[in-house]
Amino acid sequence: MARWEPNASQRLSDAALELFAERGYENTTVQDIAQRAGLAKSSFFRHFKDKRDVLFGEDALLEPLLAGIAAAPPQAGPLQAMGYALDAVGQEVFISERRSAVARRRTVIDAHPDLREREGLKSMSLTAALSAAMERRGAPGLLAEVSAHLGILALKMAYERWTEPENTDGFAVVARQAITEVEEAISAVRSRAR
Length: 194
Description:
The protein is mainly alpha-helical. The protein is built from ten helices and no strands. The protein is 74% helix and 0% strand.
């Protein structure tokens, strides 16, 4: 094997997702992943701490979400700003070329309680970062926090719909639909509270 291979991180990620789908997460070793990618085991550890890190390594969502919130016009309300954030994620992360890999990742995580727990922790971290971004836009503490939670809810809804095999819509379409549904739910709660 060559000492340096281009796109090693992506090749390792692709190999891991293939093997997780074929053999199951628990029956796949780091050695298996490295071999499938055509790399040495030591190459794996240059890119990832362990096989969970393939699924949860660098958080590709954080920067686009924060950039989308920052790019929202000053007059945009909190959920509108979250819409800009979801648009940014759709343009940078959830692109059509990655749909099958993202869907495979979701399948692996959904099948393992410890991975679902890790995904929940990731979600909590994103929520805190989004809340801070909303505060930087001028939203008071509680409004910023609620907006962040609602934004994460819309993100989760869009992610789940986008990765469904029968879905043919782009992420932006399902994300905007999710934001609209969250806004409608808020309106319904308000009208029933009166």
